[in-house]
Amino acid sequence: MNTLLHVSAPIAWFDALAHLAVKGTAILAVFFFIGFAMRRLSAAMRYLSLLAAVLSLNVLAFALVILPHWQVIPKPKSEAPLLPMPNDEIRVPLVGNLASEMLTPNPHAKPSKPGLPSVTASSTSTTAAITSATSEPNTGWQIMLLNRLTWDKIVRRLPLLWLVGVGLLGLRIVLNVLRLLLLELRCAGADTEPELSASVISVAREMGLGSATRPMPRLLIGTATAMPMVWGVLWPRLLLPISASQWSPDRLRAVWLHEFAHLQRRDPAALLLAQAMQVLHWFNPLAWVAVHRLRTTQELACDDAVLHHGIRASDYAQHLLDLSQQHRIPRGISLCSLAITRTDPVEQRLLAILDRGLKRRAMPSRITRSVLLTSAVLSLPLAMLAVDATPPQRGKILDRNGIVLVENRQGQPRNHPLKALAAHVLGYTGSDSPENKTKPDGPRRGRAGLEKTADKTLAAGFDVTTTLDARIQSIVEQAMRDAGVGRGAAIVLSPNTGDVLAMASFPNYDPGSFEPSLSLADFETLIDDKTIPLLPRAINAYSPGSAFKPFIALAAATQGLGDETFECTGSVTYGSHELKCWIARQFDSKHGVLNLEDALMRSCNCYFYQLGNRTGITAMGKAGQLMGIGEQTHIQLPDEAPGLLPTPEWLELNQPNEKSPSSIIIANTSVGQGFVLASPLQMAVLAATVATAGKVPAVSLLPRPEPIKSPADLIQNGVTPEQMERIRKGMWKVVNHESGTAKSARVPGIEVAGKTGTAQFWRVINGNQVADNHAWFIGFAPYKNPTLAFAILVQGGKSGGSTCAPIAQRIIEQSLALPADGSGKVKPSEVHQGHFKAVDDTSAKLTAAPGNGPQTTQPTSVVK
Q: Exposed, middle or buried, 397 (CB in 10 Å: 0-12/13-18/19+)?
């Protein structure tokens, strides 16, 4: 596998401890294997290998903390596949305004709990996951147990436990040193035994002591039972019992040679390194074994040095046996001293001394230095090389031109450089662990938008490139903001590919406020806000009004009814119900005989009442399946609303008193009222379908490796090219004819086609119903070879023509003027605070623009 070395800062405490355990064990295992292979070689060589292991582990411990590390990472890919959306998201209960707009009353459902109204989530649901889950509460003892015994808490306390162990073992060494100091104070100096002093000087010079680098030890005379030993690194001490003056010259020389061999090899310094290694690696059993073996081989190597200087093996073995029986080591000092019979059992040493087949060659100083230096140097890259256990830095989210929309910076919270731009699309992250919520760069999890959908991809360190064009997104949001839109949405698609170029929902919010966590006060402010900033309106479903008429025209065309003409006399009567056209209601007039083109241009209700009833609810349902009306588009966002298209099956289930779809229900559906619900995204797909002459686009927020085949082609489903062009021409007239309802959408030099709509809707404010009409404008541009398809929704707007068409004009003009190379400035978007005053005014009267007013519908069928 191809790998890269990524250099980063020194690793943290917990990671250093983990590496210390793993790499320390590996080093000791290697040297133990080497020692096993050298078991027939001299003790000096085995001792050198153990000393190299001790030195390596000491260097490793400090290098892990001080030096930067090289992290072995996979070779970066241009793009990672999108992983499935996690299905274990945390949800916040729907409260206040959020619930009132998202849920529609169902009079046929039974209340789930006494005292609570029965509701059906028919329009959409959204995830407002911020701080807590709606799980059942735990009992007190369960909460205490979970809080005390969570694995995360146990793991995070391991460094503290390691420090406690280091402190205890370090204190143990300090106490040993203090006892040695007290022992020295109680012992007499060498001047009390002049014969011993003369003997020690002679043998010390024989062993090469007495220089600046190897000073002579200070001779101390202890009690009669004191064990001969040495200690001290810079100023060595040599302890002999007071009875040593009565020893034979041969025994005295053997003891001198043994103890001076320790000093010649600097064994006190090696013992100090071994004790430091044991303190740092106290949790590793191999470290304790290594220290024990080091002390054993130290004594064996000194025994070899004694024999090398001419002492007979049998005599030396007898001397050691006598010393072990007649003398003892004072308590509490053995840890830091080197006694001649320190290692037990002595019998094994005696057998080694008497074994003539063992090799007893000493190691030259230059070889010793080379081996130790090599082991120390090799431990440095081992300490720096790491497959880091910490999770990789969360990936970026980019627009189609590589502009960074979301990123992680080292040691800082997740950053949104363009502020609230595309907030509902991008979403935000959060932490499941209370301990990580306040950590700027702690582990995060996607909570909404693409952060949630592509959570696994981003968490693995891969960047996610979107189809969004940050330039167009900025144009859309600025146009909506400048128009004073408080609640609404806008979608811009590439009709030929289905790529989402811009997706805006208003009001928006700043995703950066969720990083690293959102305060309870800010959460309550978002939930209590009557404009519902967290609601992704672009994929939420609303009553589409007259903007739905192109769909009815397409459904009729699939049945060969695209050439039909109907007469508008001002109203149509079905049974005892009279349904009026807007022109009769406002001007007491009529449209007369119309074809499909002019019916779309004039938005004649009477024409579509009759056309819809001729088409039938079943044909509408089949056309809805082709174009995704009443179904999710499967855009890569959580909680997309499927909308609603009343099919016979749905009516049978939800309107059981209607034995067959009534003409009034079909008529209301034909003008986008009644039970019909559609999201701005679905309406943009409808506009794109007309723009491409019947090819339904497969919408996506993520680029695809190759063009996706259209899920449906209406030309292959009964719509003739002539009928399709008639529908396109009708939408062209809406903008460009003098009698059209969207003349304010005209762009000089660019032919724009579209359809306006205004749907009746009411909001409940302070217990009162307030008119809150939904103004729409959908369309495409240019008329020939279109490159943009769009849908604009404004809640509380006057009409589609007066409110939405000017917004579309600005979006089209500025978007088509952008450089093709992706250059151009992107203005960061701030949190949108404005909204229509009429929205929260119970006495407000929203007037509709002439030619496109709210359609009169049966009161019981209007979605409230």
A: buried
